[in-house]
C-alpha cells in the first residue's frame, strides 16, 4: 500500500497525490522507519515455550530470543491453562530476565566486613563446600541419648524450593538427606 | 472450576493472586454460576463476586461448621453419596469423647505435652486382628498401560501388621494408616456412635446466630450462602470451594480445610466436575516442592522421613505407613520406598541391607523452618542455604529472622537480586535500632546469582498437580547458574573432599548416585534427573527401560524411581510433561498438555463422579463412569480407580491393598476407601474441626471454655510476646485485628517484583487499609502515615481509608480490622522498599503442618510515622508493659480452669 | 457530504479518507469494564511491549489502588479504580435508565420484558454483573435457571429470613482506559509535521522519528490522552537512557503487532477478556449486545462510550462499556474534536481548499525530516 521507494517518487507530496491521501494524514505521512519497522515477535530468531515463574496457575509463556537475548515474553495462546493470558507479574517477566539491577556476579561478605566483594564462582563454591564438610563434621549427631541412631547434622539448614524446578528440589533433597541434613524447608510451610 | 454452579472463595483473594486462573471463575459466572467471596476485606475478588461476606479473620470454622449443621439439620446433604462414599456410617470407638462434653477438648489430651493420644478416636472394630494376617495375593496382570488406568495391581503381603500411631505432619497427601479396613457400619446413619451422629452432635451449637456473634456475619447473609451452596449441590449441580493461605496460615489452619472437606463430602462435591476444594498455591512449583519435598518431614512422594524410636528399621517404617490389611495404594509403600532408595544409592542398595534404609537421617521432632530459626538463635545452626527465598521479609517475626541470620557462621543466598536476606548485615532495621552492628556480625555471606526460568530447562508442578516442562531459551548471564547445576557441583565437591573416607557416616554421600550426563552446554541434564525421578526397570527383560506406572514398582530392588507419584511422566520413554497439544485442538480435560500426577489423571478420586452402580450422577455432571459392555471405567478423564473393577465388586475382608478396594470405594488412597468426615487418624489436634480463637483475639471463645487450639505449638520467649486476648486485662492496649495479604502487583517478599520497575510503580509503597470509622476513631488521614504496633514490633505505612474495610459487630461490640500487604522490606537495593508487615507477627504454629498464624493478630494503630532508631524498641516495650504481656500471656495450653 | 467535509466531522471511513486504497477493516478495542478485575496486566504488557520508561514518581497516590494516575506519554493503558456507595450505585442505575428511556442510539433496544427489578433475579444481583456467556446456555435459559434456583423471589430464605437486598451496599469499579483512536482525531488534524498519521487499520499512530515536539496535538485531544514525554520519566534499561523525551507519545494500538496478525499486547494479556480487540464494527456490535444483556438483567447503569458515530469525534475506535457516568471514570461526557467546526469556518471564509493545501504543504515539509 505505502510506496517504499526512496527516490524522489517517495517524497511526501508526490505520495500524497499518488495515494490519494491528499491531506497527508495517511500513507503519505508514514516515515521510512514506520514503513520498515517489524515487531520483535517477527524478527526473533526463535520462540521457546515456557511457563510463568510466579504463582502456581502455570500459565504458558512464549519466549522470543534474538541474538541469544530474550527480547519478549508473552502469553502462549496454545496453553489450555491460560489461553495466552498473563497477569501483570507474568507480563513483566521480560524485566525479570533483563533487569538492570540483576546480579550476575558472585559476591562475598567476610565476617565483620561492611561491604560485599566480588569473588570467583569456583573459589566461592570451594569455600562453601569446605564449610559444608566442616560444619557437618562439627555438628554430627550419630546417636541420641538413648543410643538410637540419628545419623544427622543439625548444623546445616536450607530454605527455598517453591520457585525451583522439581529436578532441582530432587537433587537438593537427595544431597542434603545423604549428608544427614534434615532442616530442609521451603515456602510451602510459610 | 468452569464447570461449577457455585464457587465459594474463602481464605483466598483469587482475582488478585491468581488473575489468570480467575478466568475460569469468570467463565463459570458467565454460565450462570453464583460466586461468593468470604473475606475480611472487600478485594478485587469481591468486586466481581455476586456476594461479598465480610468475616472476622480466623473464624472460618464457625461459618463452615454452621453450614454443616444447616445441611444436617435440614436434611440438605447428598444422602446417596454420603452413605456410599464417606465414613458417615462407620461406628467410632466407645472411648471417644467429643468437645461438646469436655468443653473444647477431645478425649486423649495430655496437658503436660500438649498432644493428643488419638487411640480413642479410632473406628469401632468388628474383631481385632492379631499379628500378621495370611498372605493374600491380588489378581495377576499388574502392568498399567502408559496412560491408562490402574489394572488391579498385586496386593502383596509385606511388613508386620503392627498398630500404628500415626505421627502428625507425616502424611502429606496420603491418608494415614489404619490397621485394617474391617469396620462396623450402620447404613441407616442412626447409631449414636456413627460418624454421622457424632458430626451432628459436634456442630449442633454452630448456628446462624453463633456465626453472627463470632464471625460478625449477619444471619440473613449466612442464609444466603447456605442457600447458594445447597441449591447448587447434588446430582445435577456442584459447588466448588477455593482457598489459599487465608486458611492455612492459622494455628488451626489444617482444620479449616478439613471443615470445608467435610462440608463438600456431605454435599457430594468431591471427585466431581465443578466440585472439590481448590488449593490456590502461590508459587510456580510450590506443589512440586511438596511432591518432591524440600521439607523436613517427608521424602519424595509423601513418604515420611524416619523418626527415631518409631521407624528404626525399614520394617517398622513400612508398618507405620500402612498396614497390609488396609485398602488402597499406600499398601504398596514398600515398593515405593525400595525404588526411591535404589534411585539414590544404586548398587549399594540391596535387599540384604534394606536398600540402605539406615543411610536416612532420623527426625526427633518437628524441624520446620521456625524451629530452625529458634535453633539459629541458640547457635545450633552454622550454615544456611537460602534459595529463591527472602525470610528477612517473607517469614513471620521479621526481627527474629534477621537476628537469627546474624548467629550463623555462613549463609548462602541464591537469587536474581540482592534481596534483604542477602544484605541484612548492612541495612536491616535492626542496624537502625542498634540491635545489630555490621562490624560485629561474624556471618560470612555468599551471594550466588541464580538462573531464571527461561535460562534453564525443567518442570514446574502447578496447582492442579500438572507438570509442565520448560525449554531453555538462553544461557544464564555471567556467573548465574541454575540450582541444579549449583547443588550438583556442590555435591561433587563435597564428595571429593570425603573421597577415601572410611568413616561410616560418609557412606551415604559416597555411595550416592551422583553422575548425571551433561547437556550441550556442559551443564547437568535436567531430563536425566526427571528420568531418574520417573524410575527404571533395573532387572529382567525390560532392564534399562523407563517405568510406565508406579504399579510396576517392586519391593525387591528390581525397580528404581525417585518419586513414585511422578512415575509415568516418562511413560513409554517420552517426556510427557513436554506435551504441548494446543488446548483448542483437544477436549476440555486437555490430557495432551503437560502431565498430571498420578498417571495423568486430572480430577482425583473421580470414581465418585458416578453413583455406586457406576452410572453418572446426572448427564449434566457425567465425568467418569462404568461401561457395562466394555467392562471398564471410562469417561472424560482417566479413571482414578482400578480400571476393570466393576461397581458391584466386594473384596475378601482378609485382603489388603488395592485388591481390597470395593467397586464403590472411590477414595483409593484412604485406608478404608471412603471420604473421611471424621478423621480417626492423621490430625494431631482432633478428629473433627472445632472452633478456637486465634492466638491473639479480641474476643473470648463463645463456644467453649477452651480459648485457643490446645495443641498449637507455642514458643514462650521474651522476644515472642503475645497480646492478651478477649476479656483479659491489657487486651485493650492492642484493640484491633490485623490481617496480612498479597496484592496482584507484587510477589511474596518482593524478590521478583520490587526490583522490577513496571511492577514497583504500580504499588510503590507499603500501606494499610482501614475503614472510615477506624480512621475517625484514631485520627488517620487518607494518604498520610500511620504506625501499627503489635506485641512484637511496630511498622509504618501509608493510610488508605476505604469502605472496603467494614467494621464488624461481634458479640455486640465493634471489631475493626486492618489490612496489611506484606510485600515490602527494608533494604537498600530494591526499586521500592518499606516496612514489612511480617515484622508484626509472632511465632505460633499449626500443630499438623507447622505453618505460622499470619492471617490474624492484635495491634494498635496511630497517626504519624514510627520512631527511628532505638526509640522504635522503646515504643514497642512501652506497649508491652502497658498491656502487662509476659512470656506466659497467651501461652496457656488449657484455659478451661479460667472460668 | 463531500470529501473535504467528511474529513473533519460526521460518519466516515477514516482509513479510506486518509488515502488507503482497499484498507483492511477498521480495528478497535472493546473494553468491557463490567468484567475488569483491575489487575493492571494491560498496563504492564503495554509498557513492556513498547519499552516505555517509568513515569517517575514512586509515591502512593492514596486514590484507591490507582497509583498510575492517568494516561500519559509513558502510560498508554491506565486502570481507574472507583469505590462507590449504595447511593452512588442507585444514582448510576437511575441515570442509565433515563438514557434507555431517551432511546440512546448506541445502547440497543431496551428490553421489552417487565421491569427487571420486579423480576427479582438476577436484577442487580451482586456487585458487578456476570461476564457474557461464551459457550454456556443462552441468556434466556440462564435467566430462567437463575429464577427457578432462587424461587423467583429474592425476598426470603427457606426459613423466611429476609435476604440481603438486590442492590449491593458497595461496589468497586475498575476500568482500563486507552487512546480512543477517534474517527475524527484532533491530534491528527492539527499535527503540522505529519508525525501523526491515520493507519490503514483506521487507527491514529504517532511517529517519534517525525515529531518535533510542538505540542499542538496535546491541546487538540479532547480526552487528554496524548502527551509529550518529559525528563521526569525514569529509564528501565539501566543505561539511564529515556527515549523520545520531548516527543508526543500515546497508544499506537500496537501498529507493529496488528500488521502481523498479532493482537495488541494489552488485549492479548487481559486475563478476563475485559479488553477485546477486533474489527471495530464487531467490537461495537459486541458492546451493544452486552449492554442489551445487562439491561435485561437489570443493570440499567450499563452504557456505551464511544460507539456513537454522530458524537463530537465521529465515534471512537476504542469503545467502552461503563457502569456509571463517564466523568466517574475521568472521561469527558461529550468529547468534541477541536477541528470539527473547521469546515464551516472555512466555507464561510471561502478559502477552505487553500487552507487545506497549506496544511498539506506543511505535512510535506515535515515529512522530509
Largest sheet of chain A: 3 strands, antiparallel
> What is the beta-strand fraction of chain A?
15-25%
The first-to-last residue Cα distance of chain A is 59 Å
What Rg of chain A do the Cα atoms give? 28 Å
The named CATH superfamily of the largest domain in chain A: ADC-like domains
CATH level-1 class of the largest domain in chain A: Mainly Beta
Q: How many beta strands in the DSSP annotation of chain B?
A: 27
Helix content of chain B: 10-25%
Please report the first level of CATH classification, the CATH class of the domain at 1-127 and 186-282 and 607-625 and 640-652 and 671-691 in chain B. Alpha Beta
Q: What oligomeric state best describes the polypeptide chains here? A: heterotrimer
Give the rounded overall mean pLDDT of chain B: 91
Notes on the structure:
- The complex is a heterotrimer of chains A (190), B (899) and C (369).
- Chain A has 190 residues and is an alpha+beta fold.
- Chain A has three domains: 1-37, no CATH class; 40-98, Single Sheet (N-terminal domain of TfIIb), CATH 2.20.25; 139-189, no CATH class.
- Chain A contains seven helices and eight strands, in the order H-H-H-E-E-E-H-H-E-E-H-E-E-H-E.
- In chain A, a hairpin with a 7-residue loop joins strand 4 and strand 5 (117-118).
- Chain B is globular.
- In chain B, the strands form nine sheets. A six-stranded mixed sheet of chain B has the order 20-22-21-27-19-25. In chain B, strands 3-2-1-6-7 form a five-stranded parallel sheet.
- Among the domains of chain B are: 1-127 and 186-282 and 607-625 and 640-652 and 671-691, Dimethylsulfoxide Reductase, domain 2 (3-Layer(aba) Sandwich); 369-459 and 475-506, 3-Layer(aba) Sandwich (Rossmann fold), CATH 3.40.50.740; 713-898, Barwin-like endoglucanases (Beta Barrel).
- In chain B, helix 4 runs antiparallel to helix 8 and helix 4 runs parallel beside helix 11 (253-266).
- In chain B, 22% of the residues lie in helices and 12% in strands.
- Chain B contains 25 helices and 27 strands.
- In chain B, strand 21 (785-789) and strand 22 (794-801) form a beta hairpin.
- Chain C is of the alpha+beta class and 369 residues long.
- Chain C has a single domain (3-129, 170-367), classed as Alpha-Beta Plaits, CATH 3.30.70.20.
- In chain C, 30% of the residues lie in helices and 13% in strands.
- Chain C contains 13 helices and ten strands.
- Chain C has helices at 3-6, 14-17, 41-50, 86-101, 116-119, 139-149, 186-190, 216-220, 255-258, 265-269, 280-296, 342-349, 352-367, and strands at residues 27-32, 77-85, 170-178, 196-198, 204-206, 227-228, 248-249, 275-279, 303-305, 318-322.
- The model of chain C is unreliable at 105-126 and 134-165 (pLDDT under 50).
- Chains in contact: A-B, A-C, B-C.
- Chains A and B meet through strand 1, strand 2, strand 3, helix 4 and helix 5 of A and helix 12, helix 15, strand 10, strand 11 and strand 12 of B.
- Strand 7 of chain A pairs parallel with strand 10 of chain B, so a sheet runs across the interface.
Amino acid at each position: 500500500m505505502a510506496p517504499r521507494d526512496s527516490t524522489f517518487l517517495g517524497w511526501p507530496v508526490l505520495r500524497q497525490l499518488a495515494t490519494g491521501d491528499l491531506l497527508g494524514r495517511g500513507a503519505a505521512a508514514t516515515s521510512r522507519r514506520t514503513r520498515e519497522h517489524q515487531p520483535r515477535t517477527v524478527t526473533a530468531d526463535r520462540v521457546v515455550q515456557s511457563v510463568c515463574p510466579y504463582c502456581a496457575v502455570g500459565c504458558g509463556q512464549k519466549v522470543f530470543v534474538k541474538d541469544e537475548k530474550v527480547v519478549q515474553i508473552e502469553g502462549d495462546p496454545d496453553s489450555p491453562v491460560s489461553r495466552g493470558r498473563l497477569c501483570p507479574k507474568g507480563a513483566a517477566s521480560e524485566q525479570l530476565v533483563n533487569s538492570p539491577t540483576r546480579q550476575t556476579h558472585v559476591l562475598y561478605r567476610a565476617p565483620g566486613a561492611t561491604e560485599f566483594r566480588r569473588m570467583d564462582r569456583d573459589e566461592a563454591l570451594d569455600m562453601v563446600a569446605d564449610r559444608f564438610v566442616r560444619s557437618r563434621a562439627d555438628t554430627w549427631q550419630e546417636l541420641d541419648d538413648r543410643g538410637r541412631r540419628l545419623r544427622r547434622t543439625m548444623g546445616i539448614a536450607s530454605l527455598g524450593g517453591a520457585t525451583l524446578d522439581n529436578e532441582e528440589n530432587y537433587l537438593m533433597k537427595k544431597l542434603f538427606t545423604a549428608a544427614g541434613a534434615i532442616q530442609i524447608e521451603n515456602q510451602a510451610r510459610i | 472450576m468452569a464447570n461449577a454452579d457455585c464457587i465459594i472463595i474463602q481464605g483466598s483473594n483469587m482475582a488478585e493472586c491468581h488473575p489468570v486462573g480467575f478466568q475460569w471463575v469468570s467463565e463459570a459466572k458467565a454460565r450462570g454460576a453464583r460466586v461468593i467471596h468470604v473475606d475480611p476485606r472487600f478485594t478485587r475478588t469481591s468486586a466481581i463476586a455476586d456476594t461479598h461476606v465480610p468475616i472476622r479473620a480466623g473464624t472460618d470454622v464457625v461459618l463452615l461448621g454452621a453450614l454443616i449443621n444447616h445441611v444436617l439439620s435440614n436434611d440438605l446433604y447428598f444422602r446417596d453419596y454420603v452413605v456410599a462414599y464417606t465414613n458417615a456410617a462407620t461406628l467410632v470407638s466407645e472411648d471417644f469423647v467429643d468437645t461438646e462434653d469436655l468443653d473444647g477438648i477431645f478425649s486423649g489430651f495430655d496437658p503436660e505435652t500438649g498432644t493428643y493420644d488419638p487411640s480413642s478416636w479410632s473406628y469401632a472394630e468388628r474383631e481385632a486382628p492379631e499379628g500378621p494376617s495370611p498372605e493374600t495375593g491380588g489378581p495377576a496382570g499388574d502392568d498399567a498401560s502408559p496412560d491408562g488406568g490402574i489394572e488391579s495391581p498385586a496386593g502383596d503381603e509385606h511388613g508386620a501388621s503392627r498398630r500404628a500411631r500415626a505421627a502428625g505432619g507425616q502424611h502429606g497427601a496420603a491418608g494415614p494408616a489404619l490397621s485394617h479396613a474391617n469396620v462396623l457400619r450402620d447404613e441407616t446413619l442412626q447409631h449414636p456412635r456413627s460418624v454421622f451422629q457424632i458430626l451432628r452432635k459436634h456442630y449442633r451449637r454452630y448456628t446462624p446466630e453463633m456465626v453472627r456473634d463470632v464471625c460478625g456475619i449477619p444471619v440473613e447473609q449466612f442464609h444466603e450462602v447456605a442457600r447458594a451452596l445447597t441449591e447448587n449441590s447434588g446430582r445435577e449441580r456442584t459447588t466448588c470451594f477455593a482457598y489459599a493461605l487465608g486458611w492455612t496460615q492459622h494455628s488451626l489452619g489444617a482444620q479449616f480445610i478439613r471443615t470445608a472437606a467435610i462440608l463438600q463430602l456431605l454435599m457430594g462435591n468431591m471427585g466431581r466436575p465443578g466440585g472439590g476444594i481448590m488449593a490456590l498455591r502461590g508459587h510456580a512449583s510450590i506443589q512440586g516442592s511438596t511432591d518432591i519435598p524440600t521439607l523436613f518431614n517427608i521424602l519424595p512422594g509423601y513418604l515420611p522421613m524416619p523418626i527415631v524410636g518409631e521407624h528404626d528399621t525399614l520394617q517398622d517404617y513400612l508398618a507405620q505407613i500402612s498396614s497390609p490389611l488396609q485398602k488402597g495404594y499406600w499398601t504398596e509403600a514398600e515398593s515405593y520406598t525400595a525404588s526411591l532408595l535404589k534411585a539414590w544409592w544404586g548398587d549399594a542398595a540391596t535387599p540384604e541391607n534394606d536398600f540402605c534404609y539406615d543411610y536416612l537421617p532420623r527426625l526427633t521432632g518437628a524441624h520446620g523452618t521456625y524451629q530452625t530459626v529458634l535453633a539459629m538463635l541458640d547457635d545450633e545452626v552454622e550454615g544456611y542455604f537460602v534459595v529463591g527465598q527472602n525470610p528477612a521479609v517473607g517469614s513471620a517475626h521479621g526481627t527474629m529472622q534477621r537476628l537469627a541470620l546474624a548467629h550463623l557462621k555462613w549463609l548462602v543466598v541464591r537469587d536474581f537480586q540482592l534481596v534483604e536476606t542477602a544484605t541484612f548485615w548492612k541495612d536491616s532495621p535492626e542496624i537502625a535500632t542498634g540491635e545489630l552492628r555490621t562490624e560485629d556480625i561474624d556471618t560470612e555471606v555468599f551471594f550466588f546469582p541464580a538462573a531464571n526460568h527461561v535460562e534453564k530447562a525443567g518442570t514446574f508442578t502447578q496447582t492442579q498437580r500438572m507438570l509442565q516442562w520448560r525449554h531453555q531459551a538462553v544461557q544464564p548471564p555471567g556467573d548465574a547458574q541454575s540450582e541444579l547445576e549449583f547443588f550438583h557441583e556442590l555435591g561433587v565437591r563435597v564428595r571429593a573432599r570425603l573421597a577415601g573416607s572410611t568413616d561410616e557416616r560418609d557412606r551415604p554421600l559416597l555411595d550416592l548416585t551422583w553422575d548425571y550426563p551433561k547437556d550441550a552446554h556442559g551443564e547437568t541434564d535436567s531430563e536425566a534427573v526427571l528420568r531418574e525421578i520417573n524410575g527404571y526397570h533395573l532387572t529382567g527383560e525390560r532392564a534399562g527401560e523407563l517405568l510406565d506406572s508406579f504399579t510396576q514398582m517392586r519391593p525387591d530392588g528390581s525397580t528404581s524411581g525417585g518419586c513414585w507419584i511422578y512415575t509415568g511422566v516418562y511413560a513409554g520413554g517420552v517426556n510427557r510433561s513436554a506435551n504441548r497439544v494446543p488446548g483448542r485442538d483437544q477436549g476440555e480435560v486437555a490430557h495432551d498438555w503437560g502431565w498430571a500426577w498420578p498417571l495423568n489423571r486430572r480430577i482425583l478420586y473421580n470414581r465418585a463422579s458416578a453413583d455406586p452402580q457406576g452410572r453418572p450422577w446426572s448427564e449434566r455432571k457425567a465425568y467418569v463412569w462404568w461401561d457395562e459392555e466394555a467392562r471398564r471405567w471410562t469417561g472424560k478423564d482417566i479413571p482414578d480407580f482400578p480400571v476393570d473393577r466393576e461397581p458391584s465388586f466386594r473384596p475378601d475382608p482378609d485382603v489388603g491393598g488395592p485388591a481390597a478396594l470395593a467397586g464403590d470405594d472411590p477414595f483409593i488412597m484412604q485406608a478404608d476407601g471412603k471420604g473421611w468426615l471424621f478423621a480417626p487418624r492423621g490430625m494431631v489436634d482432633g478428629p473433627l474441626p472445632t472452633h478456637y480463637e486465634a492466638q491473639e483475639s479480641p474476643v473470648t471463645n463463645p463456644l467453649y471454655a477452651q480459648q485457643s487450639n490446645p495443641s498449637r505449638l507455642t514458643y514462650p520467649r521474651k522476644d515472642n510476646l503475645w497480646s492478651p486476648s478477649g476479656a483479659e486485662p491489657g487486651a485493650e492496649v492492642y484493640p484491633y485485628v490485623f490481617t496480612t495479604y498479597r496484592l496482584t502487583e507484587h510477589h511474596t517478599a518482593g524478590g521478583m517484583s520490587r526490583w522490577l520497575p513496571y511492577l514497583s510503580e504500580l504499588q510503590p509503597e507499603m500501606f494499610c487499609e482501614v475503614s472510615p470509622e477506624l480512621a475517625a476513631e484514631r485520627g488517620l488521614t487518607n494518604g498520610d502515615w500511620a504506625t501499627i504496633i503489635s506485641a512484637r514490633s511496630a511498622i509504618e505505612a501509608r493510610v488508605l481509608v476505604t469502605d472496603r474495610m467494614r467494621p464488624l459487630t461481634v458479640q455486640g461490640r465493634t471489631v475493626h480490622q486492618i489490612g496489611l500487604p506484606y510485600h515490602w522490606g527494608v533494604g537498600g537495593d530494591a526499586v521500592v522498599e518499606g516496612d514489612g508487615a511480617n515484622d508484626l507477627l509472632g511465632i505460633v504454629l499449626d500443630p499438623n503442618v507447622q505453618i505460622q498464624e499470619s492471617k490474624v493478630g492484635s495491634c494498635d494503630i496511630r497517626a504519624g510515622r514510627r520512631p527511628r532508631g532505638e526509640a522504635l524498641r522503646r515504643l514497642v516495650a512501652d506497649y508491652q508493659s502497658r498491656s502487662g504481656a509476659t512470656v506466659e500471656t497467651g501461652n496457656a495450653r488449657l484455659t478451661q480452669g479460667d472460668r | 457530504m463531500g470529501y473535504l467535509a467528511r474529513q473533519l466531522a460526521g460518519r466516515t471511513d477514516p482509513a479510506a479518507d486518509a488515502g488507503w486504497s482497499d484498507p483492511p477493516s477498521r480495528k478497535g478495542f472493546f473494553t468491557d469494564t463490567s468484567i475488569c478485575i483491575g489487575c493492571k496486566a494491560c498496563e504492564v504488557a503495554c509498557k513492556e511491549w513498547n519499552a516505555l520508561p517509568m513515569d517517575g514518581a514512586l509515591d502512593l497516590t492514596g486514590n484507591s489502588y490507582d497509583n498510575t494516575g492517568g494516561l500519559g506519554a509513558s502510560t498508554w493503558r491506565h486502570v481507574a479504580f472507583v469505590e462507590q456507595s449504595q447511593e452512588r450505585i442507585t444514582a448510576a442505575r437511575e441515570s442509565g435508565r433515563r438514557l434507555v428511556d431517551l432511546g440512546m442510539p448506541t445502547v440497543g433496544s431496551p428490553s421489552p420484558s417487565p421491569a427487571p427489578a420486579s423480576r427479582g433475579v438476577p436484577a442487580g444481583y451482586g456487585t458487578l454483573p456476570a461476564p457474557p456467556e461464551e459457550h454456556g446456555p443462552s441468556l434466556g435459559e440462564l435467566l430462567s435457571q437463575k429464577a427457578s434456583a432462587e424461587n423467583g423471589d429474592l425476598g426470603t430464605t427457606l426459613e423466611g429470613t429476609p435476604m440481603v437486598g438486590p442492590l449491593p451496599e458497595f461496589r468497586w469499579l475498575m476500568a482500563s482506559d486507552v487512546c480512543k483512536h477517534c474517527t475524527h482525531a484532533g491530534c491528527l488534524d492539527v499535527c503540522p509535521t505529519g508525525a501523526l498519521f491515520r493507519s490503514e487499520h483506521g487507527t491514529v499512530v504517532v511517529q517519534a522519528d517525525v515529531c518535533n515536539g510542538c505540542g499542538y496535538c496535546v491541546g487538540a485531544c479532547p480526552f487528554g490522552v496524548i502527551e509529550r514525554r518529559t525528563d521526569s520519566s525514569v529509564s528501565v534499561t539501566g543505561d539511564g537512557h529515556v527515549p523520545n523525551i520531548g516527543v508526543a507519545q500515546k497508544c499506537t494500538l500496537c501498529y507493529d503487532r496488528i500488521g502481523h496478525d498479532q493482537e495488541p499486547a494489552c488485549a492479548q494479556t487481559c486475563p478476563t477478556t475485559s479488553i477485546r480487540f477486533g474489527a471495530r464494527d464487531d467490537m461495537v456490535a459486541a458492546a451493544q449486545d452486552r449492554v442489551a444483556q445487562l439491561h435485561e438483567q437489570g443493570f440499567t447503569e450499563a452504557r456505551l462510550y464511544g460507539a456513537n458515530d454522530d458524537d463530537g469525534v465521529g465515534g471512537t475506535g476504542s469503545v467502552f462499556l461503563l457502569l456509571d457516568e463517564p466523568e466517574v471514570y475521568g472521561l469527558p461526557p461529550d468529547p468534541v474534536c477541536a477541528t470539527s467546526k473547521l469546515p464551516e469556518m472555512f466555507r464561510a471564509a471561502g478559502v477552505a481548499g487553500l487552507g487545506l493545501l497549506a496544511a498539506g504543504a506543511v505535512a510535506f515539509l515535515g515529512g522530509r525530516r
